[in-house]
Amino acid sequence: MRSFLKSFKNAVRGIKFLFKTQQNARIELIIAGIVIAASLIFRISSFEWLAVFLCIALVLSLEGINTAIEIFADKLHPGFDKEIGNVKDVAAGAVLMGAVVAAVVGFIIFAPRLWAVFIQ
Question: Residue 45: what pLDDT?
């Protein structure tokens, strides 16, 4: 049980570090809050809630992995290195792909509702 609690504490410390040090993570968290508020306002279905939470988890998790890769790469090779740069670019690209997918899911869920509000 101690090992589990220690692992949990370390994970929470990592999450705090992510949001304290990474501006993009904070922006993504604010967007997640806005999406959750919109989900409550529009009373989305259970399936749509599932999609929203999975997208939020996807983007924030990818941001955490990207941050970990960048920290590790910078520690491993503090100077400029083309291959390290490629690794960091691929990790950042993964976050971008997740964010694009989340935006598409958000559009599918919220566009018809927003259309109904502003057109009618």
Answer: 98
Q: What is the DSSP letter of 52?
A: H
| pTM exceeds 0.85 | yes
Residue 34: predicted pLDDT: 98
Q: Tell me the CATH number at 87.
A: 1.10.287.3610
With 0-12 CB in 10 A as exposed, 13-18 as middle and 19+ as buried, what is 94?
middle
Residue 43 per-residue DSSP state: T
pLDDT per residue over 77-98, tens digit each?
988 889 999 999 999 999 999 9
Number of domains into which the chain is organized: 1
Q: How far apart are CA 114 and CA 11, in angstroms?
A: 37
Domain span including residue 28: 2-119
